[in-house]
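Before we proceed, please read the two lines closing this message. Let me know whether the structure tokens fit the sequence:

…
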Amino acid sequence: MTTRPILAVDSWTDTRDTLHRWLQIVGKIRMVSTPHVNHWWNVTLHVTPRGLATGTQSHGDGIFDIEFDFVEHRLVIRHSDGGKRMLHLEPMSVADFSSRLFALLSELNLHPRIHGAPNEVELAIPFAEDTRHASYDRDAAHAFWRQLVDADRALSRFRAAFTGKASPVHFFWGAMDLAVTRFSGREAPRHPGGAPNCPNEVMIEGYSHEISSAGFWPGGGREGAYYSYAYPAPVGFADARVPEGAYWDEALGEYLLPYEVVREAADPDGLVQDFLTATYRAEADLADWASVTTSA
């Protein structure tokens, strides 16, 4: 039986806010070091047996990657020419993290140029000037990664049951969530945008087609939550029958299944699959996906 970590949302706010910005810096490096893929799939990070990583990125005729190791608490940069650098993860400001990271990249002759401020946060202090966010709790970072490992298993199993177009299971550093998305095949109405400090065209591209999306987010509930939403949401979607413990959040416009409910359930894996399947089926049935896609 998997032992799920206990990580109260309000117990690691400072570390979460700092780590969120560190992750954005690395994610932005990935964004400028990979070819654009539909719906921004090229910019995401991926769960690994050690933490979160960029996967392969291009540099001239070589490749490199960057990984947050939340087991030994270090950032590892590896280049295909054999070069390797490491940065210990410890309490430091976003400005310090950014300066140290780009110095190490320079030692490997890597010089990515990124947009130097965070997205999808209200307080978008430029990375090089951010001395406000400077916390790193090793235990909290490790517990968050274990939550992501748990969610990655669940979302990967759910993704495998769908034969239509589906995204990878991947981590969006803008909202700091692990997500998987299914597509009906139909184009969607133009998204209105509106995410804080994020160009509208990002959301327009991300939501260009009709979707059912689900994932895990370190907010909602006492310990984070699984979520599920549809764009565009069909009439009646908010009234779907979902497992006990899950609920429709009117403010967010999505279903939530708190992580603590899953952790305390008799069959945690079964509960998550029931939640993901019920919310997808509500979208697919109400929007008549059967007429345009092959699905589970």
In short: Residues 159 and 180 are 7 Å apart (CA to CA). The chain has a mean pLDDT of 96. DSSP finds six helices and twelve strands in the chain.
